[in-house]
Amino acid sequence: KAGVTQTPRYLIKTRGQQVTLSCSPISGHRSVSWYQQTPGQGLQFLFEYFSETQRNKGNFPGRFSGRQFSNSRSEMNVSTLELGDSALYLCASSLVTGYEQYFGPGTRLTVT
Amino acid sequence: DQQVKQNSPSLSVQEGRISILNCDYTNSMFDYFLWYKKYPAEGPTFLISISSIKDKNEDGRFTVFLNKSAKHLSLHIVPSQPGDSAVYFCAARDSGTYKYIFGTGTRLKVLA
């Protein structure tokens, strides 16, 4: 079974721009969660989608948004990028909400 | 407000000895706990989990212990191998929201 895939793997953007990251979950998994990882902060939860509906949300500003499609693929969008948004963005999928999560390799975003 | 804490940022252990990684939590609503291992440039990989109704779970060289009264979780790796060198994250699931909260990670180095 193919794992979780994320595209792109690396991205460099300029302050003020917007960015869209993509995540394809493991086949059959309907829940997709997004996390931000920065040095010393661990994995900070952004949001979780299940059956195209946002189920949970973390404490991030409204510049961070997401959506999920009918095939369970998910996208995350960050508008008006700030230097502090530089991080590794990880996507995790699970069968349903609350089950073990399986992570993709992440997208390394650098904002200059 | 760090609900899941890994107070040791790093740990070094000799090959063949026991590695003990610790995790403390504050929220009594957590009902399921997981450990993940993360290598550089890869997403976290699920290692082992434990339900709050148990106090121990074993899987090969890995054992997780849960002390609910102390709100403390630990991962034991015996014997430690150089390939175990990675960052280890503990995560806890909120039984109300099913959101996972991650610790900040402990970098384990196993010395040959």
Ranges of chain A where pLDDT stays below 50 over 5 or more residues in a row are none
Q: Over the alpha carbons, how many angstroms does the gyration radius of chain B reach?
A: 13 Å
Largest Cβ-defined interface: A-B, 24 and 23 residues
The number of helices of chain B is 0
Mean pLDDT of chain A: 94
In whole angstroms, how far apart are the ends of chain B? Answer: 38 Å
Contiguous runs where pLDDT drops below 50 for at least 5 residues of chain B: none
Q: What percentage of residues of chain A falls in helices of 4 or more residues? A: under 10%
Strand content of chain B: over 45%
Mean residue pLDDT of chain B: 94
Structural class category of chain B: mainly beta
Helix/strand-derived category of chain A reads mainly beta
Query: What's the SSE pattern of chain B?
Result: EEEEEEEEEEE
Helix content bin of chain B: under 10%
Approximate shape of chain A: globular
Give the SSE layout:
The complex is a heterodimer of chains A (112) and B (112).
Chain A: E1 5-7, E2 10-13, E3 19-24, E4 31-38, E5 42-50, E6 53-57, E7 64-68, E8 74-78, E9 87-94, E10 102-103, E11 107-111
Parallel strand pairs in A: 2-11
Antiparallel strand pairs in A: 1-3, 3-8, 4-5, 4-9, 5-6, 7-8, 9-10, 9-11
Chain B: E1 4-5, E2 10-14, E3 19-25, E4 30-38, E5 45-51, E6 56-59, E7 62-67, E8 72-77, E9 86-94, E10 100-102, E11 106-111
Parallel strand pairs in B: 2-11
Antiparallel strand pairs in B: 1-3, 3-8, 4-5, 4-9, 6-7, 7-8, 9-10, 9-11
